[in-house]
Structure formats: C-alpha cells, structure tokens
Design brief:
Chain lengths: 565, 169
Amino acid sequence: MRAAFVALALLFAPTPALAAALEGEAQRQPVNWVAIALFVGFVALTLWITKVAAKSTRTASDFYTAGGGITGFQNGLAMAGDYMSAASFLGISAQIFNDGYDGLIYSTGFLVGWPILLFLMAERLRNLGRFTFADVASYRFAQPPVRSFAAASTLLVVSFYLIAQMVGAGQLIKLLFGLPYAVAVLVVGALMMLYVLFGGMRATTWVQIIKAVMLLGGASFMAVMVLAQTGFSLEALFARAVEVKTQAAIAGGADAATAAERGRSIMMPGNFIKDPVSALSFGLALMLGTAGLPHILMRFFTVPDAKEARKSVFWATGWIGYFYILTFIIGFGAIVLVGTQSRYLDGEGALLGGGNMAAIHLAHAVGGDAFLGFISAVAFATILAVVAGLTLSAASAVSHDLYATVIRQGQSDSRAELRVSRVTVLVLGVLAVLLGLLFEKQNVAFMVSLAFALAASGNFPVLVMSLLWSGCTTRGATWGGLVGLTTAFVLTLFSPAVWTNSFGLGPAPFPYSSPAIFSVPMGFLSIWLISLSDRSPRAAIDKAGYAQQRVRAETGIGAFGASDH
Amino acid sequence: MVRAVTMTPSLDSATAAWLFTRYSLPASSFIRLGNRLQETFSDAVAKHLSGYIIRGSNAKGDGMADGRDAAMIAAVAADPRYRALVARRARLGWWLSALIFVIYTGYLLLIAFDKALLGAPIGDGVTSVGIPVGIGVILIGILLTGLYVAHANRHYDKAMADILADHRA
C-alpha cells in the first residue's frame, strides 16, 4: 500500500492543476476570526461528545458500530453527513455559478445510487454483516481470500477519497480561515484521529449528524434568502440569472445575439458531457459506486435491525436529495447576488479567492460576516466528518478483516482487535497528513471519481454476486473482484485526467473520462466466468452455503442484534 | 448461533518457555502459579472479558449458522409462504432498481444526444424543460425509496414475522 503511494507520488510530481471540483490553488485570505471562533465552538462540542463516547467505547462493537443502537433516522442523517462533502457543496454550486445547468447532472448522479443500495442491498447487508462489508461479501466463502480482497479494495478506495479530502481541506481552510496549508492539514488530521481513536463509531456518528444538521440548516437559510429576493419564484430567479449572464457577455464584447445565446446557455446542458460513452460511464461510476463505498456500507451495521437499515436509506436519500436541490438554488443565487457585485470579484471579473468561492461569497451576501463565518465553519466541519468516517472504515478493514480474520483466523479477542484498529488509525492519520502535504500542489479532483469507479467495479459486483447468485464461489468473488478493481484502476491511469493532465504524456490511450462502463461489466463477467469454471472442493461448499445465507439475508435469523454486540 | 470463542487468561506455552529460560524460573512453579491465578480470578476475568469476546463466528470464521439456527433456517427455507414472499420482494427490488437505472441512464442519454430538447423553454418563460426533468430525477429517487420503505414496513415485515413465528413455536 505505502509503496503504491510513494510510486504514485513520484509519478504525479510535475503536474499542472486543472479542471473540476476542487480546482486550482487557493489564495490565502485574511484571517477570519468569526469563522475561527465558530469552528472552535464546533470542535469543543465534538471533543466533548468524543469524551462522552469514549466512556462507553469498550468493546469492538462499540468501536465499529456504536453498539448497534443508532436509530434509522439518526443513521440516515449520519449517512448524509458522511456523503455530502465540501467538494459537492462548494464544487457543485461553483459549477452552477459558472455553467448553470451542468451542476445538476452531477447532483443526480450522486443521488441515484441510494435507491439501488436500498432495493438490492440495505436489508441484506444488515442481516448478514457485523462490522464491515467484508463480513457480508465473505459470508459463505473461505475467509482469507475474500477478506483480503475486501480489505485491499477498502484501503484503495478510502486512500483516494482521503487524499482528495485532505488536499481539499488544506486549500479550503487556507481560503476560509487564512491559516497556512500545512497547519490546516495538521488540524484536520489531528482532530480526525482524536474522534476516531477515542470515540470510535459513536463519536464519528455524532460528528456526522451535527455536521449534517449544520450544513442542511446553513444551506436552507441561503436558499430561502436567495428565493426571498425574487418573491419565491424560481422562474424569476432563472430569468435574473440569464439576464446577468447576458449582460456579462455584452460587457465582454459579444454582440447582442451571441450574448443572448450565452445567457440562455445556463438553462441547458453544456460541455460537462461531451460524448455519450463518457456520460454513461461517469454516471455508472457515481450510481453503482455509492453502493460500494466501504465507509457508507459500514454505517448499515450501526442500526439494530433490517427495518432500521431500510429507514436509514430513506432518510439519507431524502436529506441528500434536498441538499442537492438547495445547492442548485444556491448556485443560481450566486450568479444573481455574487456575480453582480464588484466586491466579490477581481479585476477580470473572476471570483475573489478562487473558483470554488461562489457559495462562500453568497453566504456573505445574504448573511453578512457572521453567516460567512458560520458557513466557513460548516465547510471545515464537513471535511472532518467525512475523513473521520473514511478513517474508521479503513481501520476496521485492517483490524477486523486482515488482523482478526485473516491473520489470527478468528481467534483474537476484541481487545487485541481494538488495539490493532487504533494503531491503524494513528498510522492512517499520520499518512493522511503526509499525503495531504505531498499532494498540495496536485490536481486531486479525479481522485474522488476514481474512488467511486473503484468501488463500483470491485466492491459492488462482489457484493451483488455473493448476495444474489448462488453459483458464486470464493475464487470467483476474490479474483473476479480483483479483475474489476484492477481494470478500473489501470483504465483511469490511461484516461485523459491522469495520462494527459497529470502525467503530461500527450493524448490518452483511453479516451473516456471514466472507466466504469467497461470495468463494472468486467468485474461482473470475471466473477461469473471464474465461478463457473471453478471445480474446486471449496466451490461446492460455497454453492451449498447459498440457501442458508439467503434465508438469513431475508429474515435476519441469527443476525447480530444490538444485544449481541 | 451465538457461540463464544472462550478466552482463558493462562499464558501460552511458548511465552512460558521463554520466561522460564530468560529468568531461569522453575517451570513447574510458574505453571502452578498460573493455574492458581486462573482459578482465583477466572470468574472475575470471565465476567470482564464477556464484553470482549468475539461472538457469532464459527470455527472457520465465516458467517454460516449451525445448531438451532441452522435447523430453523432449513425449516423456513422449505416453507412455500416464505418462498413466495421472498420471490415477490426480490422481483420488486429488481424492478425498482431497473426503473431508477433506466430513468437515470435515459436522462444521461438525453443530455448526450439532445441538449436542445432539455434546453427548450417551458411556455413563454425562461425555465427550461431540463430543470423539472433533472430535479424530477432526484425527486423520483426519493419517492421510490419512500414507497419501498413504506411497503416493506407495512406488508413485508408483518408477513415475514408471521412465517417466522410459526417456525419458532
């Protein structure tokens, strides 16, 4: 793993920053004391929660799943808190500020994975699993191979997601708080370690819930203030936005017809989707990747039963969908309220502080300095909640899947398992800070979509096939999953975002923006073919186990309840 | 199903042997001391450790059930009412997944092949067709999850509980 990072780091060394979500180098802003005071308040609150949580975190199940006693509603909020990243809040609203409609295409992709997660997996995950998604994927199989695959895949997915979050955090905090990049990354790393190390899943859950409430509250306020400007008419808001863009084009020297066309363009899909293959591929990665993200799947084990698991997805989907609709309004609000005021723009008409500042400036426009501080603190809290969830899931993959099951063959007590988990958290925290510093000047935007593509091509096929196809065998799940994962990884290296933009190697051998349309079928096909050709004695055991696994998946007989934990 | 991997606080033999050579302790006294400690504290230790013990995995570490759970699972699996219920739900799950999949990929294909259609204004206004369509995809996602959860809460859980109650008795 670490060797892979060093290799990657060397490969990435000379790269021009470019494109997408958290783009460009952020300019450092004057120190924002309101934001810092509010953020310190948030940190104090979450550390107090961590302290309380630490008292009741003694067993492995406390640490991994908060004892299994989280309600569906709470878990839904926490999932939303785990999922709504600062990149999607600032990145999508900024994309709408620039191009209008295209931001909505992103949002829909991030949402549609949740219903699929519910219809095919949520209840079965809860009934079969205990701490990690590998519990489910390996349920009827030989443990070491499938667990090793799941752990490797978890570490890979989490690493890319984590690097993107750490670099984003550093840039954002430099921007919002006026703190140096290194300090920002260190603060994020240290706080995340404290939450996870001492408070485990209990503290992580509450950090995520508080963050979700703050983010949803803040975004709601902004959307209402924007709509209040236009008498709560979306039509009037869009009309004003088109007018603003038209005027800007005229000011830029365009003739009336071109300017009108440019103004209208924010009402329709633009350059975000170039070719149909990239469009479908990217959409597939977002949709199916959501159902394969280890830190999201892990949250299903924090509720007492399948019914609460099901409810959590409903709440999560509702809150996330609501959030994306708010983001859409906020983006258009920024066109009208930020794009027209010179105090938010530099000499050339670009946003002060960088492309991602649209929502932040809008916060100032509708709520003054205090609300700007609040939204800045929310953005920081958002990153903390996401990285805490990621770290916890990586730590549990190492301690529960690799250490307890593969190395100790299920013969370890949970105290030893917890120790391994905590050491992993420390190592990961240090690693995350180092990687954050290492990747400071790199464009890491592609890493989030890479994480989704990997999850969609490795974890998702393995889970679906092991849950729903009786013919799946140990060999099929392990090697087939690995084929899907590797295909996604290699094709991403050959894609324009990495090959051309990051490596600077010229035209990319793989011309599409996402590998998923090839790598997801590749994963499924490999699992299917390898399982079919598997004539080993183990294959017979695997297939024979399906009937029993299916009954437990459907009924929860023998499932780990809150009291079993 | 819940089976404890019992932990005894005795030292394993390799550690004992190492301690023996390192400190030239008489092996017998060491083992006697260990056993004594074990007897004295076994209750307290067992109580203390009960929270830490890894439960629910069998000797192989996979999730497969044995004993009473396995018997009940076999009985439930053979129940035609169970089979019908599960088949119905699986069908519902696949249909709903296919529906959201088709809606979303259809939306993407529309964007890829007919941007003008989505960009067309609704009536005399500024708002384009694409906006209710895009927001609609999000709302349909929420609506379908809501319908599924309501259906499962109302009908599925009850039907399953009835079947399980018969086999538990």
